[in-house]
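Sample entry (278 residues):
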Amino acid sequence: MSDAFQAGYSAYYDLLYHDKDYAAEARFVAELVRRHCGRPPAGVELLDLACGTGRHLVELARLGMVVAGSDRSAAMLEQARRNLERAGVQAALYAHPFQTADRIGRTFDVVTAMFSAVNYLTTDGDIASALGAIGRLLAPGGLFIFDFWNGNAVLEGYSPVRVKDVRVEGRRLLRTGETRLDLVRHAAHVHYTVVIQEDGKVATEFTEDHHLRYYFPQEMVDLLEGHGLEVVQRCPFMHAEAEISGNEAGRESFRAARPHVFRPFTGRGRAAASAAPV
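Predicted structure, serialized as tokens:
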């Protein structure tokens, strides 16, 4: 797992993604809940893994869900607490990575992992531990909804350098990302240089390194089913009605849902997912 999500990252994360449509993504999750849980989202108990600064939690709660979040970064959780308090949303927060999230000690109707968070699970051991924990977190009839980088799209849309320039109320954030792909290990190393300006003057400058693994669609199906999760739907991210073609220029969404039984073994859960390029 990457150690990038610490104090520096959490401090500028919401500025970097200030224009991200969290409300629309929450509605996308709610639609999948209606389809596969057979009930409206109001009252559904949902755990968001790798919840970051909690902005998905805020929007999911506004749709009536009873939300909780978990993240391995203390700095991100602290920012999440502030965002939740500002929005008047009550949510339990836990300090667990994917691999040990089942130590929360209870189950949920829905578990989510948004914004390609599963791509930070870079080893076979990481992904195996994570899927095992997620299966134990799902209540009977539960649903796991997540998105991930589609390896086909990563390779097709690869660009070694990308720049994001964000300007909000006198603040400017300039982030340059340099990406190296390892085609043997299906891995991406992204080196970021971040410059934050306040009123035209440099206030902060630092670098970060993110280590990720990209997954291919059938590879993800095999991983899910190998851990007792039945795939009930795959679609391009934010397009619940569409079918994936294998090389969408975006994230692929999977829904792996409710616990089911394989004879003679008992499996856990189904899944839903999505994928995106670097």
